[in-house]
Every structure is written in structure tokens, then in C-alpha cells.
Specification:
7 strands; CBS-domain; CBS domain-containing protein; 6 helices; about 140 residues; four-stranded mixed beta sheet; three-stranded mixed beta sheet; Diverse_CBS-Domain
């Protein structure tokens, strides 16, 4: 079975915790992705910022995306996966935490991102259905 480093998108780019949400939105657009890891000035992962976070937590609440810092949207400790963890472990972690994207860590270093679509391609068909069902329930 493939491991995270086999199916991830390598060299994920971070948005700085002190960067504005507007900068994050531009970076999401430029990279054509739906999520960015949030990294602090200490180069440690602080969380993940998604396009949905920007829509719901900033725009939907009337906050100014130019004045709101990306780090303000980080929620506790980021859920991650190890670079050598199996596709099954990624599946389990996504389902347990109800997330569709995971930062991939090698030691303490961010090495990539793995998305639901990556896992879907790596898992047998019945497990993909189970994962989608788990992510879709409240």
C-alpha cells in the first residue's frame, strides 16, 4: 500500500501566520489550491487555512481580509500525517478528524499536502466510499 510521500503533493507552500487573509486568498488563487498550511515565524506548522475558512470565518462575519491575520484562523494544533504513514492511516485520520486535506510531516518538517482526491486514487474502491461517507456525516 502506498504511503503519504507517494501520493502527496510535494513542496507545499505556507502562508505566514502574520500574513493577511487577503494575501492567503491571492496565494490560494495563484497556486490553484483550496488550502494552505499556516506557518509561524518559528517555521512550525500552526494550522491549515482553507478557502472555506476565508468565506465563512472572515467574509461571512464581515471581517476585513486585509486586516485579519492568517494565524487568527488556526484552530488549535494542526492535524497532520507522517510521510511514511500508509494510505489506510491517512484514511483513518481524515475520517476521525473530518478533514479533507492533511499536511504531511517528515520529522518536524512540512514536506507536502495530501488531499482526499490523492487518497481516493490510492485506496481500493470500497474504502473510498467509506471515507466519503465518514467525511459527509455530522
Amino acid at each position: 500500500m502506498p504511503v503519504a510521500r507517494d501520493i502527496m503533493t510535494a513542496s507545499a507552500e505556507c502562508i505566514g501566520a502574520e500574513d493577511s487573509v487577503l494575501d492567503a486568498a491571492r496565494k490560494l488563487t495563484d497556486l490553484g489550491v483550496g488550502a494552505l498550511p499556516i506557518c509561524g515565524t518559528d517555521d512550525k506548522l500552526k494550522g491549515v487555512l482553507t478557502d472555506r475558512d476565508i468565506t465563512v470565518k472572515v467574509l461571512g462575519k464581515g471581517r476585513d481580509p486585509q486586516q485579519t491575520k492568517a494565524g487568527e484562523l488556526a484552530q488549535g494544533e494542526a492535524v497532520t500525517i507522517g510521510a511514511d504513514d500508509s494510505a489506510h492511516e491517512i484514511f483513518t485520520t481524515m475520517a476521525r478528524h473530518k478533514v479533507r486535506r492533511l499536511p504531511v510531516i517528515d520529522g518536524h518538517r512540512l514536506v507536502g499536502m495530501v488531499a482526499l482526491a490523492d487518497v481516493a486514487r490510492a485506496l481500493p474502491d470500497p474504502q473510498v466510499g467509506d471515507l466519503l461517507e465518514a467525511l459527509s456525516t455530522d
